[in-house]
Hints:
This protein is about 45% helix and about 20% strand. By secondary structure, the chain is α+β, with helices and mostly antiparallel strands. It has three domains: about 25-155, Beta-Lactamase (2-Layer Sandwich); about 160-360, Beta-Lactamase (2-Layer Sandwich), CATH 3.30.450.40; about 375-425, no CATH class. It has a six-stranded antiparallel sheet, with helices on both faces. Strands 2-1-5-4-3 form a five-stranded antiparallel sheet, sandwiched between helices. Strand 4 and strand 5 form a beta hairpin. Helix 7 packs antiparallel against helix 8 (about 190-205) and helix 8 packs antiparallel against helix 13 (about 330-370). The N and C termini lie far apart (about 135 Å).
Amino acid sequence: MTKRETNNKPAGKSAVSEQPAHENAVVAAEHPAEKELRQLVDEKRYKAVFESAGDIMMLFDKKGKIIDVNGKSLDINGYSKEEVVGKDIRVLSKILTKKSMARVVTNLLKRMAGFEVPPYEIDLIKKTGELLTFEISAQPLRKGGKIIGDLGILRDVTERKRADQEILQKSSDINLINIINEAANQGKAFEEILHLVSRETQKLFGGNVQIVYLLSKVKKYLSMDNLNLPLRMAHGIERLIGGKIPEIKIKLKPGGVYTDILSKGEAVLTNDHDVMLNMARECFEDNTLKILVATAIKILGVNSTISVPLKSDSEIIGLLGIGRHEAFTESDMKRIETIAGQLVSIIKRMRTEKQLEESEDNLRTYLENAPDGVYLSDLNGKFLYVNKKTEGILGYSKEELVDNNYFKLNILSEQYSKTVSPLFSI
């Protein structure tokens, strides 16, 4: 009696029935080309490489049916082999973004038609919800010169992409900082620099709204120093309120959103619509405008905001606010904090320069009106400055004295001239 007979199985029964139940459905429908593909992977010299590869490897037949996947595929997507093997390629829509799925199907069809497809990137969604980026390198498999299937190799390039993105972002941020510093060095007006910051941050982050508020000297208000809105949105707001957008002056009340942000001195990211409504309402004292803020937010298309206190050492001097439709990330907030820090440096520098100018003006006013003669000369005895009293004492006008040497003007007595001349380089 044969072994098949001792197992009480009909001698004419196909060998397919000896396969595990979950494989019967796959193998029973196999065409010769599929069988050849499976046999190719099952060969010892290929099997070890296929299963131990550090990249995802997937085998498809010409019609897009998944013939096999290696262990790395299952580690990444969290699915069992039974959930994918034997299924149409579109089963991958469970783990690929819609755009990526379309690219995978399109490129498979191109390769099966004999066209060469260079490596390309797709986004894969893990069962945990984490988004990963993979680079696909795929080659059609041939037998007797005919294409019978496709082997796809997917390499995780998520970290590389993140590193590249960080380098690009840092480069963009440094470029923005350089633009701001250059404008400050050229002596641009503060309002012009704020407009520049708004315009450039809008380019970097796609923000719809960028506002810089400065804290009043008495620290009771935040005053809007600039409001940079796209023209279409500005007109929409003005039609809503029936006039020009008013100057925004936020009263810092106990328990208010802005008061809380400034008191903590830390950047805040919010995607909470109610919080954004409260922030917008605090911008106005007029009750009519408070009612309209919900509609205004819709017009502006703001679904996410970042508010960064402008802090010089331990002193809060203002607030930078940015809003956009797309949700901000923690990474965005850190980048905006860096830009805000640079803006603080420029504000501090411009305030110092202004104070210095005011101090010089005060000193000049005092000297000009001093009751005594005051003059300044270099080591050669040339007048650099004289005040009104000096003009009166010497009988010369300022124009006659400045840039002239008082030894040559003979305004000193002979004895005094001999006494002081050794002190000068004449």
